[in-house]
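I hope you will forgive my troubling you with a question about protein structure. I set the record out below, with my sincere thanks for your time.
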Amino acid sequence: MTTLFLVRHGETYDNANQMMQGQTQGQLNATGVAQAEALAERLRDEHFDAIVASDLHRAVQTAEIIARPHALPVVTTPLLRERDWGDFTGRYIPDLKGLPFPENTEKMEQLLARAGKFLDFIRTNYPGQQVLAVGHGIINKAIQAVHYGKLTREIEKMENAEIRILSLY
């Protein structure tokens, strides 16, 4: 069994300003850095065999802070990237309520397939190990939905720097 500690990155400037980040790099704000540092302290005595992150900066930043006490490198993968919101990217989220998704938004089927590939990546590369992975709100919901055989809407939203533990068989 592989144990996956699934984490959402710390708060970013765009999170605080309610901007749709999608696959932009993003930057942790002071709150996000503090959240990542608090999580690193909480997990200081936990053993990890590997630390994996989305290749987007906000996730890498969070993972690097958590990785420091463990002296582990951060492995990045585009499989953990946030959903691509197409033309919604960079827009103020409250303005998007009720609007149809742009045609260039990553389709739910594609997102779920990517989530499944991520789970396969972890099972294949880290069998029987304990792995911490830093992703994003929507991809983390998709990963949990695939893992538990549920719809994404049945998975509770993850807050910034929140952690959920999944047992992968």
Notes: Helices lie at 13-16, 30-42, 57-67, 108-125, 137-148. The longest helix spans residues 108-125.
